[in-house]
Design brief:
Largest sheet: 7 strands, mixed
Order of helices and strands: HEHHEHEHEHEHEHEHEHHHHEEHEEEH
Strand order of the largest sheet: 2-8-7-6-5-3-4
Number of helices: 15
Distance between the termini: 84 Å
Mean pLDDT: 95
Number of strands: 13
Structural class: alpha/beta
Low-confidence stretches: none
Shape: globular
């Protein structure tokens, strides 16, 4: 016999509830520690005080006009409907060709490459695909601000390991003894970022070999954030996880067209991973964004036919880095290495004993240049008297910032 269910309650005709005002039900937040990001705060402060904004990491110059022409042509050619969920085949083929040409590993475009709505969505999707409630994910600090909220949304726990072998401020080399000590029975994944944001450190081949040895006897997965892969300087090469078979076999490798081609607002990236991992990735991808802007994918595929734009990117940004570093050399900032990415970290200990957030506010309001405090990239807000500048700017922007910073 079927159970008798109570009838739903409906007010009797003519009945008026005591309170007819609109009411929004209370919601228990999933991210109680998340508020307005420091990037939004500092950019607003820079705008209010007409400061040069070297805080947020995006260019203030345009992309190659040929790329815009490719996008226009793609729209005019009728590429304006849904593409395949994993991305248009011609773009996935171009990505696979690039990875093989640069790093020596061939990914199957059909089963092992997925085009994403930027690298941030790619990282979230990878975490949601493999992290279960109670799993632990090792995060190397300082780190990009999306990693920890992504882990928490998946029900996982972030385990923090500080970068730096010496313990001195400004040291951001990986400490493999600490990483090894953090691996436990609940460890599901490790996130690695090289070239590194915010420190501009680049992992070496020896670092990757050591990581491969450390992970070999485990089932720990690797999420490799390589969005600055084409910004490596002074004759170094980018040690992509794709170069290292023992790591590539357990890794989601993430990159960004926005960073590479100066179009951060396009929000297009990609992930490369072994087919078994990509199968799980696509299960999540199809239900959070499903797919990515069609004409942009066709435009990028056409533009990638010429490798020069990304092959010439190291020289392009190294010149800007050197211009900026030369100008800073006359100030009391202590320059930290900038091996890759488009960031320059400096130690301001000789200028002020303020904490990093206060110093950045003072630098913005009184000197007219906005920077980002490194402490915000740490869960517990570690203070080192170090701030980050972005030099992905026009030369005249950098020169104006340097004129103002010369007062220091």
């Amino acid at each position: 016999m079927n159970a008798i269910r109570p009838a739903p309650f409906f007010p009797a005709p003519g009945h008026v509830p005591a309170d007819t005002s609109p009411r929004t039900p209370a919601v228990s937040t999933k991210l109680p520690k998340v508020g307005t990001t420091i990037f939004t705060v500092m950019s607003a402060l820079a705008q209010e005080h007409d400061a040069v904004n070297l805080g947020q990491g995006f260019p203030d110059f345009g992309c190659d006009p040929k790329l815009v022409e490719c996008l226009t042509a793609a729209m005019q050619a009728g590429h304006n409907q849904y593409p395949p969920m994993a991305g248009v085949p011609v773009l996935r083929e171009a990505i696979a060709d690039k990875i093989e040409r640069l790093y020596g590993r061939r990914y199957d475009p059909a089963q092992e490459i997925t085009v994403t709505a930027g690298a941030t969505q790619a990282i979230l999707t990878a975490i949601l695909a493999v992290v279960r409630p109670g799993d632990e994910v090792i995060v190397l600090e300082p780190c990009y601000d999306s990693y920890v909220p992504n882990i928490e949304l998946a029900g996982g726990k972030a385990v923090f390991v500080p970068l730096g072998r010496s313990g001195e401020p400004g040291d951001f080399r990986p400490d493999f003894a600490r990483i090894a000590a953090a691996i436990g029975p609940r460890t599901r994944a490790l996130i690695v970022n090289t070239p590194h944001n915010p420190s501009a450190t680049v992992w070496s081949a020896a670092d990757m070999h050591r990581l491969a040895e450390l992970l070999a006897p485990t089932d720990v997965l690797l999420i490799a954030d390589e969005v600055y892969e084409h910004m490596v300087y002074d004759g170094r090469v980018h040690e992509s996880v794709a170069r290292h078979p023992l790591l590539a076999a357990r890794a989601f490798i993430v990159s960004s067209f926005g960073k590479t081609y100066h179009v951060t607002g396009w929000k297009v990236g990609y992930v490369a991973a072994p087919a078994t991992l990509m199968h799980e990735f696509r299960k999540v991808h199809q239900f959070n964004v499903f797919t990515v802007h069609t004409p942009t994918q066709h435009a990028l595929a056409q533009y990638m036919a010429d490798p020069r734009p990304y092959l010439e990117l190291p020289a392009f940004y190294q010149r800007k880095r050197d211009l900026f570093r030369t100008g800073l050399a006359s100030t009391r900032f202590r320059l930290l290495p900038s091996e890759g990415s488009y960031f320059q970290c400096v130690d301001y200990s000789a200028i002020s004993d303020m904490d990093e957030v206060s110093f950045c506010r003072w630098l913005t309001t009184e000197i007219g240049v906005a920077a980002i405090p490194l402490s915000v990239f740490y869960e517990a807000g570690r203070e080192q008297h170090v701030v980050r500048f972005c030099y992905a700017k026009k030369d005249e922007t950098l020169q104006l910032a340097l004129q103002r910073l010369a007062r220091l």
